[in-house]
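Much of what follows relies on a compact textual record of a protein's fold. An example makes this concrete, so a full record is given next.
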Amino acid sequence: MKLFVGLGNPGKEYEQTRHNVGFFVIDELAKRWNVSLKTAKFRGLFGMASVSGEKVALCKPLTYMNLSGECVRPLMDYYDISVDDVIVIYDDLDLPPGKIRLRLKGSSGGHNGVKSLIQHLGTEQFKRIRIGIGRPTGGQPVTDYVLGRFTEEEKPAVDKAVLRAADACEQAVTAPFIQVMNAFNE
């Protein structure tokens, strides 16, 4: 079973923020695959489907970003999902808005949601799809920036990136991730 985890923060006040682009991709996949995401005992929204003959699970942790691993680890344990079958989707300050980058592994890069996952999974060896949100300008604090909303100028590029990331997830259901990386990394 493949597990797709989109990182973000729960609650109305965070719904359309930069930090929630991982949630946007899970919502897009849920729509494409007709998956109903329900609150699960794993402290997240969760749903399963069969895609191209493969079982897939979608997850949006409701633990808040900095505690994402507290949702994902119990879910993996319960369904006996290997870390090799986990793909995490999240925002990245170091990529321009709308750019996506896929990686097989890596450090947290300062991302607290990824830090939590590394801590709870005990490894940096999990697949990632990073979606660029750019960096703040004019001295704006990073926290305010990531918890802010996209500008009208950024929205078209980000919307396109969310669709590309969802396309990459769909391909990753049946194709080796290295092949997906070659197709989607820009």
Observations:
- The helical segments are 21-33, 69-79, 112-121, 142-146, 155-172, 177-184.
